[in-house]
Specification:
- The N terminus is likely disordered.
- It is built from 13 helices and nine strands.
- Helix 4 packs antiparallel against helix 5, helix 7 packs antiparallel against helix 8 and helix 10 packs parallel to helix 11.
- The protein starts with a helix and ends with a strand.
- The protein has about 450 residues and is α+β, with helices and mostly antiparallel strands.
- The strands form three sheets. The chain has a five-stranded mixed sheet with strand order 5-6-7-9-8, covered by helices on one side.
- This is histidine kinase.
- It catalyses: ATP + protein L-histidine = ADP + protein N-phospho-L-histidine.
- Keywords: ATP-binding, Coiled coil, Kinase, Membrane, Nucleotide-binding, Phosphoprotein, Transferase, Transmembrane, Transmembrane helix, Two-component regulatory system.
């Protein structure tokens, strides 16, 4: 928050009711000047009233010093100036009092009432004094001069300080309003900056989670198959060289496919390599925000076609698992149709991860992959039977990070779908997911 000079001065404080020391010095100086004026004017007042001159001087000093209270009680100052108007005293106090009253936060009806009282009082006193002077012969002008002098004097002593005070008060309130708005805007900007930083941190965390999930999906399945084939290669290398050669070729193919998918995924993260940044519906992928955190990574070529796994690749995926020794039964229900890239990639990843888990935890078990195309959704299910007792999984020693099911659930739920997984009554395991088609 910025602090203006006035705020710093206000923070220092002043004596009694003054907010600043210079305000106190100004009011005391005006009070001294008003007291001296009233004391001087108290001399003719005392002579006209037939009282001692000292009493008139003391009365003038006391009345004029009331101006020191103008910021604390402006109404009292104006009332005192009206009260001593018949004695032709307190002109300075009346002008300064009216200005302070008009610049204050008091209601307009109170300011108007006191200003009217001061105007009427000055008008009457001036009218009487001028008429007396003309009666004594001090003035030889016509009768028109009496009301003219009275009106001119009363307006001259009342209107300028009143109008100036109203202007200063309105300007002060405007400045306070602008200052409050500026402070409010600064607080809002600071709050927005904090929220933006929180959203950026959240987006970074989501992006890290997404990248970790993609790395897991790309690497786990391919490497698991490579480990299975490597174990089989080790077992048949001496007994069946031809089969060993085929297994070695499969391992090489799996490695190349894993590298290809890794390049495609990491291409999304590259920048400044001379290639246009990946875009989605005309918007840079980096600007998609939250949607990028829940969508599968994909590289988009110059024609705008998304590269990456889709449902049409399920046959290849099932064939790779079958080549690794798994008995897989694939069945498709409903009319085959295309879906959005995010939906197809998520469905593919769910089946891929489920098959990977079968390789890890139930090697040799028969597996059923079912895909159903419905009116407004797509459903998939991967279920395996209990693994045979003599399994080669122990020899392969496939590690498990425990993030496969979590990643599948995150993908499906992010698209508004439902994900269910758990053991079956027969001793196997089932993974089911339903994803909205739009």
């Amino acid at each position: 928050m910025t602090t203006t000079g006035e705020d710093r001065a206000t923070a220092l404080g002043g004596p009694w009711w003054w907010a600043r020391w210079r305000s106190a010095v100004l009011d005391v100086s005006l009070a001294v000047a008003s007291a001296v004026e009233c004391a001087v004017e108290g001399v003719p007042f005392a002579r006209d009233a037939g009282i001692p001159v000292a009493a008139g001087v003391v009365f003038g000093l006391a009345a004029g010093s009331v101006l020191v209270l103008r910021r604390r009680w402006p109404i009292a100052v104006v009332l005192v100036s009206i009260a001593i108007t018949p004695a032709q005293m307190g002109f300075l106090m009346g002008i300064v009092g009216l200005y302070t009253l008009a610049a204050s936060e008091l209601p307009r009806r109170i300011i108007g009432s006191l200003a009217g009282m001061s105007l009427v009082g000055t008008l009457i006193v001036t009218f009487v004094r001028v008429r007396q002077d003309m009666a004594r012969g001090d003035l030889t002008l016509g009768d028109w001069f009496v009301p003219f002098a009275a009106i001119t004097t009363s307006l001259g002593l009342t209107a300028p300080p009143l109008l100036l005070g109203l202007y200063v008060g309105a300007r002060r309130r405007l400045m306070e309003s602008l200052r409050e708005r500026a402070d409010s805007l600064e607080r809002e900007l600071q709050l927005l900056a904090e929220r933006a930083e929180e959203r950026a941190e959240w987006a970074r965390n989501e992006e890290r989670t997404r990248i970790a999930r993609e790395m897991h999906d790309v690497v786990a399945h391919r490497v698991s198959l490579m480990v299975v084939h490597a174990a089989a290669l080790q077992a048949v290398a001496r007994k069946d060289p031809e089969k060993a050669v085929r297994n070695a070729a499969l391992v090489g193919d799996m490695g190349r496919q894993a590298l290809t998918e890794l390049r495609e995924m990491l291409g999304v993260l590259r920048s400044g390599d001379g290639r246009a940044a990946p875009r989605r519906d005309g918007v840079p992928l980096a600007a998609v925000g939250v949607a990028a955190a829940v969508a599968a990574s994909r590289v988009v070529d110059e024609e705008g076609v998304a590269d990456g796994p889709c449902l049409s690749d399920l046959d290849v995926l099932v064939g790779q698992s079958a080549a690794a020794g798994m008995v897989v039964d694939l069945s498709v229900e409903g009319d085959t149709r295309s879906y959005a890239a995010d939906i197809e990639q998520t469905a593919f990843r769910v089946v891929q991860e489920a098959l990977t888990n079968v390789h890890k935890h139930a090697a040799g078990a028969k597996t059923y992959v079912r895909l159903a195309h419905r009116v407004s959704e797509i459903a998939m299910q991967v279920e395996n039977e209990p693994p045979p007792e003599a399994s080669s999984a122990s020899s392969a020693r496939l590690p498990s990070g425990g993030n496969g099911l979590v990643g599948m659930r995150e993908r499906v739920v992010a698209l508004g779908g439902v994900f269910v997984s758990g053991p079956t009554d027969a001793g196997g395991f089932r993974v089911s997911a339903v994803i909205p088609a739009s």
